[in-house]
Every structure is written in structure tokens, then in C-alpha cells.
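Saturday, quiet lab. Running sequence design on the C-alpha cells for the scaffold JK sent over.
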């Protein structure tokens, strides 16, 4: 089994959550340079007509939402994408209900190595070697292998899948000098919130000394791992306090009844992210809470598409490959 065949084994679990026909129709500047404004950044990334985005993980719902967001933001989808080895090869039609744009995408199972190699080579010849980019919404178990596959094939990527060995992921991509956007969360508003917390922790470390930390997060029951966002926020909370809260202490809710008790509406059970972070004083008389509750996948999908536009712009600037995060995307102004 080739590396990418192993890498995309995790796709089977993600793709099997929905039917194969689920989405078939109907469906920084240096001192010598001026800082680039957000408006200039958007202008720079406006001409991406040669870019093709390979959205891997369809027909899984998050990958499908990301593909729709790409169409909505004027990006063209690659005609081929990778799916799990247990998924029957098929062609799906991605349809964006906002713009009415559609695109047919052939899904190739990960065990069809020769077809995958030929498809990637053909797309890179057709659109240009630097114009094929990928979005990954697959499965935590596939993260590290997938990233190696993208680096081997010279495909810059946005890693929307959480989990995997993140330290190894960063190490592998740094050694490969490969361009990628890797972040625990793709929603720009939540990214801004995370950045604010990080800044707060740096400016006021220990401000909540003595306070107890409690973290609860609820996601659809098909999400296998603990939220990457929750893990990132906990790091800042620990800087603000001295509770030594550990990641294993995060309460992970993956049961429909428990999620509804937590406040998730019934219509959001199949796609939501409800997080509550609480600081409580030693005597229990003071409590601070931070919440961010999301129903659906649109906010993540659109942030992912913005990440692709940002990455495509960076590739056009040239230079050595680099790893970026969503704060880089936010600061560059490539957000719509």
C-alpha cells in the first residue's frame, strides 16, 4: 500500500457518515516596503482564475461545505478529489445555493493508486504546477499521512482536519519546506477571539490565579477527537491562571441528549460546536464565562476558502515554503 493509500484510510470513516449520493444535484513588511493593507491584499488575491482546489474528504459534510464555499468565493474546484478506500468511485455535483454555481467532481478511492497519480499529474499540467491546492477535511487518523502525500506531490494545502500528531505534522512540513495553512479552527471570528485571549494572557499572566478552570465542549457525535480550538484556548487560560488544567480534563460531549441539555438545538445536532470556558473563584462567589456556540458548518467552510485564497497569494509571491495559521490569514486581510 502506497503512503497516500494509508493516508486516506481515515477518509472512509468520514465519508461513510453520509451516502455517496448525498451531494449529487439536488444538491509584513520590511523597512524598505510599505505594509500591505487589507484592501491591497484582497486585490492581490483577486485573480485566481488558474487555481484549482482539490477538496479531499467528500462526500463528508465538512468537505462538501468547504467545496461549496470555494464556489461561493469565486474559486474553481479541481475535477478530481480523494475519498476513502471503501467509497465507491463516483462523480458528485457540488452546488452552492447562494450563487447557483455548480461543479462536477470525480471521487477516487485511496486504494486506486495509479489513477490518483495520473489525476494529480494531469491536473498540475492543466492548471500549472503551482496552481493545484488542496483542502483536507478527512479524519484525525489520516492527518499526518495526508500531509506527507501533499508535500510529496507538491500540493500546498489547508488542513481543516483536527487531531493527529500535530507536533509531528509541523515538523514534517517544516522539514519539507512545504506551504500550508494549519490551524485548529477555520472560523475567522473564533480565530480573532483566540488571538485576543493569547494577547490577554501575555499582558496579564496570572490575572486569574487561584481560580478553577472548567471547559465543556459539544460537537456532533461523529467528531472523533477533542476540539482543537478548546485545546488552544486552554493554553491561554492556563497562562491567565494557575490551575494547571490538563487537556484530558476537557469535558467532551458527543451524545445527542447531553448536547441538547447543553443548549444545542435539535436541528444542530448533526453539525455544531458549543464551547463554554469557566473561571470560578476559590470561594465560588465569582464566576467568569466565555462561550462560543456555532450551529452548522458555514463559518468554518468560508474561513477555509479564505485560507486557500491567502495561500494561493503566498505561492504567487514566491520564496521558500512556509507554514501559516489562520491568524496570518486574518492579519493579511484575506477575509470576506
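Result came back. Writing it out in full:
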Amino acid at each position: 500500500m502506497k503512503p497516500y493509500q494509508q493516508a486516506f484510510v481515515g477518509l472512509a470513516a468520514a465519508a461513510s457518515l453520509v451516502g455517496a449520493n448525498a451531494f449529487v444535484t439536488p444538491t509584513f513588511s520590511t523597512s524598505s516596503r510599505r505594509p500591505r493593507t487589507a484592501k491591497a491584499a484582497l486585490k492581490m488575491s483577486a485573480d485566481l482564475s488558474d487555481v484549482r482546489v482539490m477538496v479531499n474528504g467528500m462526500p463528508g459534510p465538512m468537505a462538501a461545505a468547504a467545496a461549496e464555499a470555494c464556489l461561493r468565493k469565486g474559486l474553481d474546484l479541481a475535477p478530481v478529489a480523494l475519498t476513502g478506500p471503501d467509497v465507491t468511485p463516483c462523480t458528485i455535483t457540488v452546488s452552492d445555493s447562494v450563487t447557483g454555481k455548480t461543479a462536477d467532481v470525480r471521487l477516487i478511492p485511496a486504494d486506486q493508486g495509479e489513477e490518483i497519480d495520473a489525476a494529480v499529474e494531469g491536473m498540475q499540467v492543466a492548471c500549472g504546477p503551482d496552481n493545484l491546492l488542496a483542502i483536507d477535511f478527512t479524519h484525525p487518523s489520516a492527518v499526518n499521512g495526508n500531509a506527507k502525500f501533499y508535500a510529496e506531490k507538491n500540493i500546498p494545502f489547508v488542513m481543516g482536519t483536527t487531531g493527529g500528531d500535530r507536533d509531528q505534522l509541523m515538523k514534517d512540513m517544516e522539514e519539507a519546506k512545504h506551504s500550508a495553512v494549519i490551524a485548529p479552527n477555520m472560523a475567522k471570528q473564533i480565530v480573532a477571539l483566540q488571538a485576543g485571549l493569547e494577547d490577554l494572557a501575555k499582558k496579564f499572566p496570572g490575572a486569574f490565579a487561584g481560580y478553577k478552570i472548567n471547559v465543556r465542549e459539544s460537537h456532533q457525535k461523529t467528531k472523533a477527537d477533542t476540539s482543537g480550538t478548546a485545546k488552544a484556548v486552554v493554553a491561554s487560560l492556563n497562562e491567565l491562571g494557575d490551575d494547571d488544567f490538563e487537556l484530558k480534563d476537557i469535558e467532551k460531549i458527543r451524545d445527542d441528549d447531553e448536547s441538547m441539555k447543553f443548549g444545542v438545538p435539535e436541528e444542530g445536532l448533526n453539525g455544531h460546536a458549543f464551547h463554554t470556558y469557566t473561571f470560578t473563584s476559590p470561594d465560588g462567589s465569582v464566576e467568569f464565562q466565555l462561550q462560543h456556540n456555532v450551529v452548522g458548518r458555514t463559518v468554518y467552510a468560508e474561513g477555509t476558502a479564505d485560507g486557500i485564497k491567502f495561500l494561493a497569494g503566498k505561492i504567487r509571491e514566491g520564496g521558500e515554503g512556509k507554514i501559516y495559521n489562520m491568524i496570518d490569514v486574518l492579519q493579511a486581510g484575506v477575509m470576506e
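Notes for JK: The longest helix spans residues 298-317. Residues 3-45 have pLDDT under 50 and may be disordered. Ask whether to fix the surface positions before the next round.
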